[in-house]
Amino acid sequence: MIAETQIAQFDSLTLDNGVTLRDITVAYETYGALNEARTNAILIEHAFTGDAHAAGIDHEGKPGWWANMIGPGKAFDTDHYFVLCANVLGGCRGTTGPSTVNPATGKPYGLAFPGITISDMVRLQKLLIDHLGIPKLLAVAGGSMGGMQVLEWAVAFPDAVEACLPIATTARHSAQQIAFNETGRQAIMGDPDFQNGNYYGGALPARGLSVARMVGHITYMSDESMREKFGRRLRDRQDFSYGMDVDFEVESYLRYRGNQFVGRFDANSYLYITKAMDYFDLASGFPSLAVALERARSRFLVISFTSDWLYPSYQSQEIVNALRSRNHDVTYCELSSNYGHDAFLVDVGEQTEIVRGFLARCVREFRSLEAVR
To answer: Does 116 share its domain with 238?
Structure first.
Protein backbone atom coordinates (compact mmCIF):
# COMPACT_ATOMS: atom_id res chain seq x y z
CA MET A 1 0.00 0.00 0.00
CA ILE A 2 1.17 3.53 -0.75
CA ALA A 3 1.31 5.54 2.46
CA GLU A 4 0.08 9.11 2.19
CA THR A 5 1.36 11.70 4.64
CA GLN A 6 -1.37 14.03 5.86
CA ILE A 7 -1.09 17.38 7.62
CA ALA A 8 -3.20 18.67 10.50
CA GLN A 9 -3.02 22.28 11.66
CA PHE A 10 -3.60 23.70 15.12
CA ASP A 11 -3.75 27.29 16.28
CA SER A 12 -1.62 26.99 19.40
CA LEU A 13 -0.06 24.82 22.10
CA THR A 14 1.18 26.06 25.46
CA LEU A 15 4.43 24.29 26.31
CA ASP A 16 5.72 23.14 29.67
CA ASN A 17 8.10 26.11 29.74
CA GLY A 18 5.14 28.53 29.53
CA VAL A 19 5.70 29.57 25.90
CA THR A 20 2.69 29.41 23.59
CA LEU A 21 3.65 28.02 20.19
CA ARG A 22 1.34 29.12 17.37
CA ASP A 23 0.42 27.94 13.87
CA ILE A 24 1.44 24.34 14.42
CA THR A 25 1.45 21.63 11.76
CA VAL A 26 1.48 17.90 12.47
CA ALA A 27 2.45 15.33 9.83
CA TYR A 28 0.81 11.93 10.25
CA GLU A 29 -0.02 8.74 8.38
CA THR A 30 -2.84 6.24 8.89
CA TYR A 31 -3.21 2.58 7.94
CA GLY A 32 -6.36 0.46 7.99
CA ALA A 33 -9.86 1.75 8.65
CA LEU A 34 -11.50 3.27 11.70
CA ASN A 35 -14.51 1.17 12.66
CA GLU A 36 -17.97 2.64 13.09
CA ALA A 37 -17.68 2.68 16.89
CA ARG A 38 -14.23 4.32 16.65
CA THR A 39 -12.80 1.80 19.11
CA ASN A 40 -10.00 0.20 17.06
CA ALA A 41 -7.45 3.04 16.86
CA ILE A 42 -3.81 2.38 17.77
CA LEU A 43 -1.32 5.22 18.02
CA ILE A 44 2.27 4.27 17.16
CA GLU A 45 5.00 6.43 18.68
CA HIS A 46 8.25 6.74 16.78
CA ALA A 47 11.75 6.67 18.24
CA PHE A 48 14.19 9.59 18.26
CA THR A 49 15.04 9.88 14.56
CA GLY A 50 11.84 8.34 13.22
CA ASP A 51 8.91 10.03 11.53
CA ALA A 52 5.27 9.55 10.63
CA HIS A 53 6.08 7.01 7.90
CA ALA A 54 5.75 3.91 10.06
CA ALA A 55 4.31 1.41 7.55
CA GLY A 56 3.53 0.76 3.93
CA ILE A 57 5.56 2.20 1.06
CA ASP A 58 5.94 5.89 0.32
CA HIS A 59 5.97 7.42 -3.17
CA GLU A 60 9.73 6.90 -3.39
CA GLY A 61 9.37 3.21 -2.66
CA LYS A 62 10.73 3.47 0.89
CA PRO A 63 9.12 1.15 3.46
CA GLY A 64 7.97 2.51 6.81
CA TRP A 65 10.36 2.24 9.73
CA TRP A 66 8.13 -0.41 11.43
CA ALA A 67 6.70 -1.98 8.27
CA ASN A 68 7.60 -5.43 9.59
CA MET A 69 5.19 -4.88 12.52
CA ILE A 70 2.33 -2.88 10.94
CA GLY A 71 0.17 -4.17 8.13
CA PRO A 72 -2.29 -6.93 7.19
CA GLY A 73 -1.67 -10.03 9.31
CA LYS A 74 1.19 -8.40 11.23
CA ALA A 75 1.46 -7.56 14.93
CA PHE A 76 -0.54 -4.36 14.45
CA ASP A 77 -2.95 -5.92 11.98
CA THR A 78 -4.43 -3.26 9.72
CA ASP A 79 -7.19 -5.67 8.69
CA HIS A 80 -8.53 -5.15 12.22
CA TYR A 81 -6.99 -1.95 13.58
CA PHE A 82 -6.81 1.68 12.50
CA VAL A 83 -3.14 2.48 13.03
CA LEU A 84 -1.70 5.99 12.96
CA CYS A 85 1.68 7.58 13.55
CA ALA A 86 2.57 11.28 13.81
CA ASN A 87 5.92 13.03 13.56
CA VAL A 88 6.77 14.50 16.96
CA LEU A 89 6.83 18.17 17.89
CA GLY A 90 10.35 19.47 17.27
CA GLY A 91 10.85 17.10 14.38
CA CYS A 92 11.84 17.88 10.82
CA ARG A 93 9.55 15.64 8.79
CA GLY A 94 6.43 17.75 8.51
CA THR A 95 5.67 18.65 12.13
CA THR A 96 6.59 22.07 13.51
CA GLY A 97 10.18 22.21 14.69
CA PRO A 98 13.34 24.34 14.58
CA SER A 99 13.54 24.20 10.76
CA THR A 100 9.96 25.51 10.44
CA VAL A 101 9.50 29.13 9.38
CA ASN A 102 8.71 31.31 12.38
CA PRO A 103 5.56 33.29 11.44
CA ALA A 104 6.83 36.25 13.48
CA THR A 105 10.09 36.59 11.50
CA GLY A 106 9.56 34.82 8.18
CA LYS A 107 12.74 32.82 8.82
CA PRO A 108 13.37 29.34 10.25
CA TYR A 109 13.23 29.28 14.05
CA GLY A 110 16.68 27.76 14.55
CA LEU A 111 17.64 28.07 18.20
CA ALA A 112 14.83 30.58 18.72
CA PHE A 113 12.51 27.58 18.79
CA PRO A 114 11.28 27.09 22.37
CA GLY A 115 12.51 24.15 24.40
CA ILE A 116 10.18 21.16 24.31
CA THR A 117 9.42 18.08 26.40
CA ILE A 118 7.97 14.61 25.88
CA SER A 119 4.85 15.93 27.61
CA ASP A 120 4.54 18.68 24.99
CA MET A 121 4.80 16.09 22.22
CA VAL A 122 2.03 13.99 23.76
CA ARG A 123 -0.31 16.95 24.32
CA LEU A 124 0.01 17.82 20.64
CA GLN A 125 -0.80 14.21 19.76
CA LYS A 126 -3.89 14.42 21.94
CA LEU A 127 -5.03 17.41 19.88
CA LEU A 128 -4.58 15.27 16.77
CA ILE A 129 -6.55 12.35 18.23
CA ASP A 130 -9.37 14.71 19.20
CA HIS A 131 -9.23 16.28 15.73
CA LEU A 132 -9.71 12.81 14.20
CA GLY A 133 -12.75 12.20 16.39
CA ILE A 134 -11.31 9.27 18.33
CA PRO A 135 -12.79 9.25 21.86
CA LYS A 136 -10.44 6.59 23.22
CA LEU A 137 -7.42 4.82 21.80
CA LEU A 138 -7.38 1.05 21.92
CA ALA A 139 -3.62 1.21 22.41
CA VAL A 140 -0.52 3.38 22.32
CA ALA A 141 2.71 1.59 21.42
CA GLY A 142 6.31 2.51 20.75
CA GLY A 143 9.94 1.72 21.42
CA SER A 144 12.81 3.78 22.80
CA MET A 145 11.71 7.45 22.87
CA GLY A 146 8.39 6.14 21.59
CA GLY A 147 8.07 4.17 24.81
CA MET A 148 8.56 7.37 26.82
CA GLN A 149 5.61 8.90 24.98
CA VAL A 150 3.55 5.77 25.71
CA LEU A 151 4.24 6.17 29.44
CA GLU A 152 3.38 9.87 29.28
CA TRP A 153 0.05 9.03 27.62
CA ALA A 154 -0.74 6.59 30.43
CA VAL A 155 -0.21 9.22 33.14
CA ALA A 156 -1.30 12.43 31.36
CA PHE A 157 -4.44 11.05 29.68
CA PRO A 158 -5.39 7.95 31.69
CA ASP A 159 -8.97 7.83 30.39
CA ALA A 160 -7.99 8.22 26.74
CA VAL A 161 -6.12 4.92 26.22
CA GLU A 162 -7.12 1.33 26.91
CA ALA A 163 -3.69 -0.33 26.62
CA CYS A 164 -0.06 0.78 26.67
CA LEU A 165 2.92 -1.00 25.09
CA PRO A 166 6.21 0.65 26.14
CA ILE A 167 9.06 -1.25 24.46
CA ALA A 168 12.83 -1.03 25.09
CA THR A 169 12.45 2.19 27.04
CA THR A 170 12.81 3.91 30.40
CA ALA A 171 10.87 6.15 32.77
CA ARG A 172 13.87 8.51 32.87
CA HIS A 173 17.36 8.76 31.45
CA SER A 174 20.36 7.64 33.46
CA ALA A 175 23.53 9.72 33.66
CA GLN A 176 25.09 7.50 30.97
CA GLN A 177 22.17 8.02 28.60
CA ILE A 178 22.33 11.78 29.11
CA ALA A 179 26.10 11.65 28.51
CA PHE A 180 25.69 9.96 25.12
CA ASN A 181 23.18 12.61 24.06
CA GLU A 182 25.40 15.45 25.25
CA THR A 183 28.32 14.04 23.26
CA GLY A 184 26.18 14.18 20.12
CA ARG A 185 25.00 17.70 20.87
CA GLN A 186 28.56 18.94 21.38
CA ALA A 187 29.67 17.36 18.11
CA ILE A 188 26.95 19.33 16.30
CA MET A 189 27.44 22.66 18.07
CA GLY A 190 31.21 22.38 17.66
CA ASP A 191 30.92 22.18 13.87
CA PRO A 192 32.05 25.54 12.34
CA ASP A 193 29.06 25.38 9.97
CA PHE A 194 26.58 25.23 12.86
CA GLN A 195 26.49 29.06 13.01
CA ASN A 196 24.61 29.11 16.31
CA GLY A 197 21.78 27.19 14.67
CA ASN A 198 21.36 29.65 11.78
CA TYR A 199 22.73 27.43 9.01
CA TYR A 200 19.55 27.26 6.91
CA GLY A 201 20.21 28.30 3.33
CA GLY A 202 23.95 27.72 3.76
CA ALA A 203 26.35 24.90 4.49
CA LEU A 204 24.93 22.32 6.89
CA PRO A 205 26.83 21.26 10.02
CA ALA A 206 27.29 17.93 8.26
CA ARG A 207 30.46 16.77 9.98
CA GLY A 208 29.10 17.36 13.47
CA LEU A 209 25.72 15.79 12.74
CA SER A 210 27.40 12.80 11.12
CA VAL A 211 29.62 12.21 14.15
CA ALA A 212 26.61 12.54 16.47
CA ARG A 213 24.81 9.88 14.45
CA MET A 214 27.86 7.60 14.51
CA VAL A 215 28.02 7.80 18.31
CA GLY A 216 24.30 7.13 18.58
CA HIS A 217 24.40 4.22 16.19
CA ILE A 218 27.07 2.47 18.24
CA THR A 219 24.70 2.50 21.22
CA TYR A 220 21.91 0.91 19.16
CA MET A 221 23.91 -2.24 18.41
CA SER A 222 25.29 -4.88 20.76
CA ASP A 223 28.90 -6.01 21.00
CA GLU A 224 27.85 -9.41 19.67
CA SER A 225 25.94 -8.02 16.69
CA MET A 226 28.88 -5.78 15.75
CA ARG A 227 31.27 -8.69 16.09
CA GLU A 228 29.10 -10.87 13.86
CA LYS A 229 28.53 -8.16 11.27
CA PHE A 230 32.01 -6.65 11.09
CA GLY A 231 34.56 -8.34 13.35
CA ARG A 232 37.96 -6.88 12.51
CA ARG A 233 37.52 -7.33 8.78
CA LEU A 234 39.35 -4.87 6.57
CA ARG A 235 37.55 -2.82 3.96
CA ASP A 236 38.80 -3.23 0.35
CA ARG A 237 42.41 -3.73 1.36
CA GLN A 238 44.82 -6.48 2.32
CA ASP A 239 46.77 -4.55 4.93
CA PHE A 240 46.53 -1.43 7.09
CA SER A 241 46.79 1.98 5.45
CA TYR A 242 48.90 3.29 8.34
CA GLY A 243 46.97 6.53 7.89
CA MET A 244 43.55 7.97 8.63
CA ASP A 245 41.78 6.35 5.67
CA VAL A 246 39.12 3.72 6.25
CA ASP A 247 40.75 0.44 7.21
CA PHE A 248 38.00 -1.55 8.89
CA GLU A 249 34.53 -2.41 7.63
CA VAL A 250 32.99 -1.01 10.80
CA GLU A 251 34.62 2.38 10.10
CA SER A 252 33.15 2.43 6.60
CA TYR A 253 29.73 1.45 7.92
CA LEU A 254 29.64 4.19 10.56
CA ARG A 255 30.75 6.85 8.09
CA TYR A 256 28.08 5.72 5.65
CA ARG A 257 25.35 5.84 8.30
CA GLY A 258 26.52 9.25 9.46
CA ASN A 259 26.59 10.74 5.96
CA GLN A 260 23.20 9.20 5.12
CA PHE A 261 21.70 10.75 8.23
CA VAL A 262 22.75 14.28 7.25
CA GLY A 263 20.53 14.10 4.20
CA ARG A 264 17.34 13.33 6.12
CA PHE A 265 17.56 14.93 9.57
CA ASP A 266 17.91 18.46 10.87
CA ALA A 267 20.76 19.19 13.28
CA ASN A 268 18.65 21.53 15.41
CA SER A 269 15.96 18.86 15.73
CA TYR A 270 18.69 16.55 17.01
CA LEU A 271 19.49 19.06 19.75
CA TYR A 272 15.91 19.72 20.78
CA ILE A 273 14.67 16.14 20.75
CA THR A 274 17.64 14.73 22.67
CA LYS A 275 17.11 17.45 25.29
CA ALA A 276 13.44 16.47 25.54
CA MET A 277 14.48 12.87 26.13
CA ASP A 278 16.96 13.91 28.82
CA TYR A 279 14.36 16.10 30.55
CA PHE A 280 11.86 13.25 30.68
CA ASP A 281 11.18 11.86 34.14
CA LEU A 282 7.79 10.25 34.55
CA ALA A 283 8.03 10.58 38.34
CA SER A 284 8.68 14.33 38.22
CA GLY A 285 6.15 16.10 40.42
CA PHE A 286 5.25 12.88 42.22
CA PRO A 287 6.77 11.26 45.34
CA SER A 288 7.78 8.20 43.31
CA LEU A 289 7.37 6.42 39.98
CA ALA A 290 4.76 4.15 41.56
CA VAL A 291 2.68 7.14 42.64
CA ALA A 292 2.92 8.65 39.16
CA LEU A 293 1.74 5.40 37.57
CA GLU A 294 -1.11 5.18 40.06
CA ARG A 295 -2.92 7.61 37.73
CA ALA A 296 -2.85 5.11 34.86
CA ARG A 297 -6.01 3.22 33.91
CA SER A 298 -4.52 1.14 31.10
CA ARG A 299 -3.36 -2.44 30.97
CA PHE A 300 0.32 -2.72 30.06
CA LEU A 301 2.61 -4.88 27.96
CA VAL A 302 6.24 -4.00 28.74
CA ILE A 303 8.95 -5.52 26.52
CA SER A 304 12.74 -5.38 26.87
CA PHE A 305 15.63 -7.18 25.16
CA THR A 306 18.53 -9.03 26.74
CA SER A 307 21.28 -7.38 24.65
CA ASP A 308 19.95 -3.81 24.87
CA TRP A 309 22.62 -1.88 26.75
CA LEU A 310 21.27 1.56 25.81
CA TYR A 311 17.96 0.92 27.59
CA PRO A 312 18.80 -2.16 29.65
CA SER A 313 16.13 -4.45 31.01
CA TYR A 314 16.49 -3.19 34.57
CA GLN A 315 14.87 0.09 33.47
CA SER A 316 11.83 -1.74 32.09
CA GLN A 317 11.70 -3.82 35.27
CA GLU A 318 11.56 -0.63 37.34
CA ILE A 319 8.44 0.36 35.39
CA VAL A 320 6.93 -3.10 35.84
CA ASN A 321 7.65 -3.13 39.59
CA ALA A 322 6.07 0.30 40.00
CA LEU A 323 2.97 -0.83 38.11
CA ARG A 324 2.66 -4.05 40.10
CA SER A 325 3.02 -2.16 43.37
CA ARG A 326 -0.20 -0.38 42.42
CA ASN A 327 -1.96 -3.59 41.30
CA HIS A 328 -2.04 -2.63 37.63
CA ASP A 329 -2.65 -5.22 34.94
CA VAL A 330 0.85 -5.63 33.50
CA THR A 331 2.57 -8.28 31.38
CA TYR A 332 6.35 -8.19 31.16
CA CYS A 333 8.47 -9.98 28.56
CA GLU A 334 12.26 -9.89 28.33
CA LEU A 335 13.08 -11.24 24.89
CA SER A 336 16.37 -12.86 23.97
CA SER A 337 18.10 -11.08 21.09
CA ASN A 338 21.61 -10.33 19.85
CA TYR A 339 20.63 -7.10 18.09
CA GLY A 340 21.00 -4.68 21.01
CA HIS A 341 18.64 -1.72 21.22
CA ASP A 342 17.75 -2.13 17.54
CA ALA A 343 16.05 -5.43 18.42
CA PHE A 344 12.63 -3.79 18.74
CA LEU A 345 12.93 -2.69 15.10
CA VAL A 346 14.48 -5.78 13.50
CA ASP A 347 13.95 -8.85 15.71
CA VAL A 348 10.18 -8.99 15.37
CA GLY A 349 9.27 -12.69 15.24
CA GLU A 350 8.57 -13.37 18.92
CA GLN A 351 7.63 -9.73 19.50
CA THR A 352 4.89 -10.05 16.88
CA GLU A 353 3.27 -13.05 18.55
CA ILE A 354 3.29 -11.40 21.97
CA VAL A 355 1.86 -8.11 20.71
CA ARG A 356 -0.78 -9.86 18.59
CA GLY A 357 -2.00 -11.91 21.55
CA PHE A 358 -2.00 -8.95 23.90
CA LEU A 359 -4.02 -6.77 21.52
CA ALA A 360 -6.55 -9.55 20.91
CA ARG A 361 -7.08 -9.79 24.65
CA CYS A 362 -7.46 -6.00 24.89
CA VAL A 363 -10.12 -6.01 22.17
CA ARG A 364 -12.12 -8.75 23.91
CA GLU A 365 -12.03 -7.02 27.28
CA PHE A 366 -12.60 -3.55 25.82
CA ARG A 367 -15.74 -4.78 24.05
CA SER A 368 -16.94 -6.50 27.22
CA LEU A 369 -16.56 -3.26 29.17
CA GLU A 370 -18.35 -1.27 26.48
CA ALA A 371 -21.22 -3.76 26.54
CA VAL A 372 -21.58 -3.33 30.30
CA ARG A 373 -21.62 0.45 29.97
So the answer is: no
